[in-house]
Write the structure tokens for this entry.
Amino acid sequence: MAEFDTVIKGGTIIDGMRTPRYVGDVGIRDGRVAAIGGIRPSDGAQVIDAAGLNVAPGFVDLHTHYDSQLYWDPWCTISGWHGVTSVGIGNCGFGFAPCKPEDQYRSMLTMTRNEAVPLESMQEGMPWDWETFPEFLDSVERTDKGVNIVSYMPLNPLLAYVMGLDAAKSRSATDAEMAEMKRLMFEALDAGACGWSAQLTPVDVEVQLDHDGTPMITNLMSEKDLRSFARVLREAGRGLIQCIGSGKELTEMLAAESGRPILWNVLAIFADQHGNSAGAGFEDNLAWLDDANARGLRIYAQSLTVENDHQFTLEDWNLFDIVPAWRDALMGDVEQRTANLRDPEMRQRIRDSHDQRMLPHDMIEDLRVGIIHKESLADIEGFTVGEIAEKRRCHPIDAMLDVALEDDLRALFITPPRPANPETMSQLLHCPVGLPGVSDGGAHTKFLTHARYPTEYLARHVRDDGLMSLEEAHWRLSAYPAMAAGIKDRGWIREGAPADIVIYDMETLAVGESERAWDYPAGAWRLVQKPRGYRHILVNGEVTHTNGVCTGATPGHLLRHGRAG
């Protein structure tokens, strides 16, 4: 009988602990690393030849929205394709638990605009076999998983569950309501939530709105209620807070009141994952993070390390919601949007917002027209909106909207590349409290492929630009985020640890090309990028992908916070 279930033979091991790389073998037994060193091939029931390849811990992606997708895609792709073996869900205060049965449809509607998840896919693909948050975790646990899952308790559904949606958007909680929400928060922590999450951007600059164009509950929360939730973590003595859009003072308050780490989103050079200005100067944010942590506040920063590109059509686009004219025009279905964009008054409002620089001018003028569906428009494919405006002798807004309307809102617009210079990117990568990610995996499914970030990190920043050593990169991609989120004993390769492992060819590693995949329930499509160079991806010792092909194995675990597993 073989001593090991699997032996990974002769690979270059980068163990995720900043240990200098070395060539060796890894023996796996019962889902865990049982031995590292010289191991005979005959001792393995299965042998993976890793000669010339890198063997590293699977990546930990803390910012995803796979809360619904995990039910129809056990591997949480595209993250699972790009070497991610553990994902965090329940981010930004959004999720589906707790939720009363009569509120399920409204809960799904919320996710159609703020995170752009197709409604028809959620309706067909989600089992809704829960009401409370512990019941949701139980549902995740019994669902086949190709990656490991850890979850925040999102505040948006919690407030709606206890207070009712309208009340939660219009006032603070009563003492009785807050007592009940705190009870449910403790219950969620005891069940395995890794903390709580909230979107806290001021309403006048928030881009992620509810399906009806109103702010999300958490954007309207009082500081008093936020303090109460923070104190739950202090009393529990565990967990962290994931927040997006919170100002520096509010973030520091949450850290002080909770006594727990904060995962602050987002540290970016130009703009956040939604394409909006990152606000205060990048260098100012770095200095603030250094100062806050020196004063004893534990604040991590989720870092946007990918080139921040989008592809979109006006059928679904909502990430101009920061501008009222755009938000109003792009409400409703295609028929309603078409009517809005033909309306002269609405069109003038959009022109005015452009001329007043409510969006950067180059955000519109530099958009490039990609796929066009009507032959009569074929001659403008590949041109920018600015070039089309010049050719048609019209305002850039009219050029963009006319092209969209002439192609029944199906015309594809592509944001221009905006790569950071290597010196600034190096600052971002080496931020002492920076955690790479902000993948938004499972969200904005027709616009973004940021879940490619681990592959781009290694192929571009490490291999091509030489901005970081492999040892440092793998620590930041795996062990550091696992530690920050309280995920026990994952993120590295060492004896006794779960065998979450990627085996890849550094020379051929690439993010792949963007393409449409018609693989969502109810026939919905999404934008994907399939990488090259990953030979094998293992989760808890089982191979889930070989040379980009899924094996069908679903060895993922629900990672209940504070527990090994």
User: Anything to note?
Assistant: The longest strand covers residues 4-13. Residues 311-414 form one domain.
